[in-house]
Amino acid sequence: EVQLLESGGGLVQPGGSLRLACVASGFNFSSYAMSWVRQAPGKGLEWVSVICGSGDSTFYADSVKGRFTISRDNSKNTLYLQMNSLRAEDTAVYYCAKLNGDSCYSPLDYWGQGSLVTVSS
Amino acid sequence: DIVMTQSPDSLAVSLGERATINCKSSQSVLYSSDNKNYLAWYQQKPGQPPKLLIYWASTRESGVPDRFSGSGSGTDFTLTIGSLQAEDVAVYYCQQYYSSPFTFGPGTKVDIK
User: Which residue from A95, B18, B66, B80 has the least number of CB within 10 angstroms?
Assistant: First the structure.
């Protein structure tokens, strides 16, 4: 059974940093692209970032480019999202999601339960 | 960036009746090399993460009831719930994975009339 477990969320002040982690199990982690998607309270889904299965290609939404970094440690079956220079508008539930192939150009077939990040003073 | 729009914003349908949701992309998501539309549909119920329903515009994900179907090509797509059930109350999103950023539509809320 595929499982994705996010951690690292919490309350952070504007301008601060936070690192989210997503531990994956139930599939060959290194063979699949992985992504982060966020959802502000009461709002729709916003795609944030993706890392291809090999880890050598990454893409970002314009709203986070230069501030967020996606990475993966295939030896630990873990996906990360380093978030710097956080703003109030980054407040959201952050979902870790698995793509259904190693290509970044694939749909998101499994999602974690999400980790809430609140940016506030 | 490809902008995704959905219509309607919300709809209420009687149990057993058909629900139709439209999704439009600002540019084609049909990749000529493989003749596939890079378009997916997701269902999100309150308090839950999204769930993949349809990908390649019309391929049903394993385990998804066959009352859910997807159609369309290029820039115009449709998700149809053939006979609405109570458990289908949710928000439905389309997403293009043709080019980064891999944008979602704003969502369509489906309720029971």
Answer: B66
